[in-house]
User: What shape does this take?
Amino acid sequence: MIQFFRKIRQRLFTENKFTKYALYAVGEIFLVVIGILLALQINNWNDRRKEKQKEAFILKDLHQEFVFNKKLLDSIMTHHKRTFKSAEYLKSRLPIDVNTIDNLDSLSYHLFTVSFAYTYNPSTGIINSLLNNSTIEIISNDELRQLLIGWKDVLSDYQEEELRASENYLNHLKPFEKEHFKYSLDYKELLSDPRIDLTFLESLAFDNYVLDRHNDLNNIVNTTTWTGELNHISKTMDRIIELSNTKSTD
Assistant: This one.
């Protein structure tokens, strides 16, 4: 093809047809430019196709990660709510009169349950990779991209109450338990050891133990008592799951 165009140029030049030669040269340049632009366009199409494929893989992994994280949050909240119910049971019976306790096993069960502290630690491998490697821009959906950028703050806001409750329990409430309870996998043994002086149940220290634990758990499970971090993180995850679901856009 190049040899063909070269022969045409040589013939027009030797025949001294300058005007036709000039027009031909311009036309040849035009064709070359068109060819270059077409090649660039094809290259851009290929790049965009590769980016779309890469984005699809990332969205699939991201979707799976947040589906897992949402299930984990639901599981953690189930534990928190069960523990909170035990705290409410204990609170409703304050102050306790040892001489009128009608069901020591029930009291032991709720003391056993209220002693469990849980924290939500979701998987963050995919989202950390996006943010740390500056590849977040591959996410074409503006809303999803902004949700992912703000995820760390949303998670931190939710975890703040959990961590505060966990630290308060480990540093202040657990020592009280060690002094007055017997640790066992069987809740019935919690208060049954003959060395335990059950009159501690009538003390102000025990009342404060129950009220402190109740307050911490209330701040976690009841969004009406604080700034709604539980509701916020739950809705954020639901939206990320929805927007990252590539099957819904196929």
In short: The first helix runs from residue 2 to 14. Helices lie at 2-14, 18-92, 104-114, 125-132, 142-180, 204-221, 229-243. Residues 70-249 form one domain.
